[in-house]
What does this fold into?
Amino acid sequence: MSKKTNSDSSAAPASNTGTVDIGDHGYQKGLQNRHIQMIAIGGAIGTGLFLGTGGRFEIAGPALAIVYAICGVFAYMVVRALGELAMYRPSSGAFVSYAREFFGEKGAYTVGWLYFLDWAATVVADITAVALYAHFWSIFMPIPQWVLALIALAVVMTMNLISVRLFGELEFWFAFIKVGAIVLFGIIGIWVLISGQAVGDYQPGLSLITEHGGLIPNGIGSLFAITLGVVFAFAGIEMVGITAGESTDPHKSIPRAVNSVVWRILLFYVGSVLLLTLLMPWDAYSSSESPFVTVLSAIGIPVADDVMNLVVLTAAMSSLNAGLYATGRTLRSLAMAGTAPKFAKRMNKAGVPYGGILITCAVGILGVFLNMIMPEKAFEVVLNLSGIGTVSAWASIMLCHWAMVRRARQGKLQRPEFQLRFAPWVNLLTLVFLVSVVVMIGLDGEIGPLTLGLFGIALVVMFIGWFLVRGRIDAEALTHNIDVVGEGIDD
It folds into this structure.
């Protein structure tokens, strides 16, 4: 029997009934609507907002709000496309499963391992960040950084391994803390604006923008300089697509979560930045401190540092939690086809793919020791590699959606009612944007070329890896892996 990976294009009914992925077998529907909604919110709020905003203010000033809005539009397009794919066929394999259906096993292999690279790098960064944030409090100072990192990894790993419902609960409360912090800051900031209370040495208002260089004080080039960082800040919003396969009612919860992405980005990112620029001038913020802490401290609110450090630590734990969840499902989908270690197939009685989660944890443990000797530049490269992984994942979503739209126009499948409008032109525009982001990485001083060089090495390793694993692909299993009723799988 020949290896069969791509869906047949010759004779398919215009119906999606019966479409299945063998990689989805064994999962439990443990995520409720409230979990999905908060996971979607949590994916849109992370350390990129709480901590990274200060550094981006230094570069772009108030124009940061413009970049957040523009990148937010493209992020929404990606999530909307993923939402339509999830309504077409909910799958815990998400990008890997859709790439397998529309581009064959080679496409699934490429997308899956790039996404694993994304989250593996993020996990290394997150466990190190948690340890650094914990050292903010004197009680944790005597504990070595690597011990704190291991504790964080062990706690989140345990929560992930018990059940998907426990993962959902953990992410629910992580997101609740982050959202609560932003809402509380918004209430305080708006009250300060209305009351006219001084913020340190400054009087809040539009004058803080007009008298400090205007909306774009450092020129148009500064907007491009922070684009990658902003895209990285939005990394994780695609998590809502992965959760579809374990949702109790994906056809209800996924559209609601996707549609709310727009107002979440406008409220949490654009709204927060605008409020920050009206409370203090942009040059009062710095990369060494969260801008939220800067404002709250200037207002005179006690323990602002402690509260915001707790929120930032929570954001890092949330990202770590999501990373283990996503990579566990991604690796299992790859392993079911034979393009990842067999161990990644393993699933416990609670429906948790513990094999893939433990593989990611092994990478995380390696990262703990590497970060002991890594200079700061190397750590930045890890973050940039994660950013490239995010761009790759988003690009794969748009390509899979484009392929689905094309097949629908050929009458081979039926698009769901929940759709990304103006496809495929929106897909093309988004892909051009994502390519431009990668180009901007290459122009980022010394770090950019080094990052692209390491990414190139990773691609070479993946290319060699494909020739090593392609003989292990279970052709017989793949003939049922993506099975539309009446549609075979050809060469």
About this structure: The first strand starts at residue 6 and ends at 7. Strands lie at 6-7, 489-490. Confidence is low (pLDDT under 50) at residues 1-15, 481-491. The chain is about 70% helix and 0% strand.
